[in-house]
């Protein structure tokens, strides 16, 4: 079944993408939750018109994201965590701490746009986080976990 996404859906697509998914997934989850609409002929015509109107705005957002990405390239973060004597962290470090460390440097990024390759960071060391600034613009930011 073809659908038009109203919001970004992880592992499916981004907002305003036309994608094919299984009928049950679309009818039982995506459409009732308001994440997508069925891609009927009239919906596709409306989609084409809105995409023409958004093309210019999208290009401007992409350029702004590239400029912001260049600012982020030189940044490396240091995050302090309470640790045991062997270097194990009590709890774990997640995207919330990375977002807070970025906000201390004057950069406001939503934690939902930050992803860490490792599931749980439980040891002191150096890692990288991926920050999604735009659909096509992603930046790798190195960060180091140190013992407090």
Task: Write structural notes for this entry.
This protein is an alpha+beta fold. The chain folds into 2 domains: 2-63, 3-Layer(aba) Sandwich (Ribosomal Protein L9, domain 1); 70-147, Ribosomal protein L9, C-terminal domain (Ribosomal Protein L9, domain 2). The chain contains 3 helices and 9 strands. The protein has helices spanning 23-30, 41-72, 95-104, and strands spanning 2-5, 18-20, 36-38, 77-81, 88-93, 114-116, 121-123, 125-132, 138-147. A 4-stranded mixed beta sheet has the order 4-9-8-6, covered by helices on one side. It is elongated, with a radius of gyration of 20 Å. The protein starts with a strand and ends with a strand.
CATH architectural designation of the largest domain: Roll
Report the major sheet.
4 strands, mixed
CATH topology heading of the largest domain: Ribosomal Protein L9, domain 2
Number of strands: 9
List keywords for this structure.
148 residues, alpha+beta, Ribosomal Protein L9, domain 1, Ribosomal Protein L9, domain 2, four-stranded mixed beta sheet, three-stranded antiparallel beta sheet, 3 helices, 9 strands
């Amino acid at each position: 079944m073809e659908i038009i996404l109203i919001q970004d859906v992880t592992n499916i697509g981004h907002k305003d993408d036309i994608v094919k998914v299984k009928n049950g997934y679309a009818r039982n989850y995506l459409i009732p939750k308001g994440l997508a609409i069925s891609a009927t002929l009239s919906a596709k015509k409306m989609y084409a018109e809105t995409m023409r109107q958004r093309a210019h705005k999208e290009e401007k957002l992409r350029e702004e994201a590239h400029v912001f990405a260049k600012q982020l390239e030189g940044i490396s973060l240091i995050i302090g965590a309470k640790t045991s004597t062997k270097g194990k962290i009590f709890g774990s470090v997640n995207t919330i701490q990375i977002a807070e460390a970025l906000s201390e440097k004057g950069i406001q990024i939503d934690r939902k746009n930050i992803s860490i390759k490792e599931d749980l960071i439980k040891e002191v060391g150096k890692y990288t986080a991926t920050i999604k600034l735009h659909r096509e613009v992603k930046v790798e930011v190195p960060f180091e976990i140190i013992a407090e």
